[in-house]
Amino acid sequence: MKRWSLVISLLFVIVACSGCRLKHAQLKEFTDEKFIMDTLIRVTVYSDDEQKGKGALDKAFAEFERINNLTDRFPKEGENTSVSSDVIRINENAGIQPVQVSADTLNIVQRSIYYAQLSGGSFDITIGPIMDLWGFGKNVQRVPSDDQIEKALSLVDYRKVVVDPDNGTVYLQQPGMSLDFGGVAKGYATEEAAKILRELGIEHAIINAGGNVYALGARPDGSPWRVGVRDPRNEDGLLAILSVKDISVVTSGDYERYFEEGGLRYSHLIDPSTGKQARDLMQTTVVAESSTDADIINKPLFVLGRRQGMSFAESLQGVGAIFVGADKQVTFTGNLTNQLEFTGNGGYQIINQQ
Amino acid sequence: MKNLNYYILAGLLALVLISFGVSHLVRRQMEEGDLRLEIYANGQLYQKINLSEAASEEIKIINKDGHYNVVEIEKGRARIREADCPNQICVRTGWISQPGQIAVCVPNKFNIEIKGKSSNVDTISY
């Protein structure tokens, strides 16, 4: 009897062991990618149920499509964006009349104006005429003349955006003005998609919208997600790695959209006060709870440059930032110290101010 | 009888040990030698190539609108060498070789990505 009990107990142990492994393997990874908002969106979720996992992916992508339809600036061939896009309708009615918009658009405009005020206009969603002049968003880019820039600049002013939250309308006061959500729409869509994943009961997920990252929860094993920050001058390398949970990491760099003329690099990161490229930095990274905020905040940081950008970042609660100067000097806010490791690659000089 | 039971016990124990050992080895091998290139057209997986053993080759992918991208592959790395897109961002991205790295051609809805378990990051902010 005793022997049999030994055998049985051993069998029990084996069954129990395979049981633990099964349980660990129950959380499966589901991932998909789509081209939306002129960029590659990738979503990865973990779920113990295939239907739930795949359904969550579909709903996340549907949210990106929805926000894209509201915020697209240019009508696309074969797509009915000119009817659905709030931005197109607002721009068409500049200097004419206020336009009724969705709650999402109202939200984006209000948040953008808040940061425009806070940063003294170094972020401005009325940058549309300047972006058009340089050809960003279109296929042909060129360096405009100073006269052209000055003329377009007279149409850039966030203070001429009238928001009426009670009636749900947005109005651009001057004819020719135009909104450009290029610096905020991806972040907002990422935040909304993350909300939807949470509502569906997803506890571990990564959303990467053209480099805009939201890390939902932690890794399935409970450890923090590891988010790499690209080396701004080497596509094949990483500058640093951030260990994060429930947070957004967004990077802006002069390598994202640019053209070269006469040996000079002209990026899409333009200072709304001069209408020309900001050149003090080549990359900024912002870590913040809200992906919308993280996306927006990058732009004033890049435009303000290392010194002023650093004081602006430090004035914002719960926001971390990394600055890579054109001189390859790297600085970062002190609150990132415990979660930031530099790879040491690329010949950057890391300046820890603490 | 007594001996027989001991044999059964020993056999079971050996079985358990061997299965643990094998699964460990398999897993380790997957982590080490698992560097691969994934080619996506219009968000759909088009082809997977083992980069650890890849011979030099070129693949031209033409999408349904007639636009093309040329992927060049060498051992351990890959790039989009040529494309008929207007902005050439994908070509300028250059060689990629680390898990998680991607080269994207938005106009042609085309991208390549390096995959591998040895990646020490979950995703890349760029």
What are the salient characteristics of this protein?
heterodimer, A: 354 residues, T-fold, 9-stranded mixed β-sheet, 9 helices, B: 126 residues, alpha+beta, mini-chromosome maintenance (MCM) complex, domain 2, 2 domains, 3-stranded antiparallel β-sheet
Describe the structure.
The complex is a heterodimer of chains A (354) and B (126). Chain A is an alpha+beta fold. Chain A has three domains: 77 residues, ApbE-like domains (T-fold, Roll), CATH 3.10.520.10; 85 residues, ApbE-like superfamily (T-fold, Orthogonal Bundle), CATH 1.10.3980; 131 residues, ApbE-like domains (T-fold). Chain A is 36% helix and 28% strand. Chain A has a nine-stranded mixed β-sheet with strand order 1-2-6-7-10-15-16-17-19, covered by helices on one side. Chain A has a three-stranded antiparallel β-sheet with strand order 3-5-4, covered by helices on one side. A three-stranded antiparallel β-sheet of chain A has the order 8-9-18, with no helix packed on it. In chain A, strand 11 and strand 12 form a beta hairpin. In chain A, helix 2 runs antiparallel to helix 8 and helix 8 packs across helix 9. The longest helix of chain B is centred in the first third of the chain and has 31 residues. Chain B folds into two domains: 32 residues; 81 residues, N-utilization substance G protein NusG, insert domain (mini-chromosome maintenance (MCM) complex, domain 2, Sandwich), CATH 2.60.320. The interface between A and B is large, with 46 and 35 residues.
Produce the secondary structure layout:
The complex is a heterodimer of chains A (354) and B (126).
Chain A (H helix, E strand, L loop, with lengths): L1 H24 L2 E9 L2 E9 L2 H22 L9 H4 L1 H7 L6 E2 L2 H16 L9 H7 L11 H8 L7 E4 L4 E4 L12 H15 L4 E6 L2 E5 L8 E7 L2 E11 L2 E7 L4 E4 L2 E4 L2 E2 L4 E2 L3 E8 L2 H25 L4 E6 L3 E4 L7 E3 L6 E2 L4
Chain B lengths: L1 H31 L3 E6 L2 E7 L6 E6 L5 E7 L2 E7 L5 H5 L8 E4 L4 E6 L7 E3 L1
Antiparallel strand pairs in B: 1-2, 1-7, 3-4, 4-5, 6-7
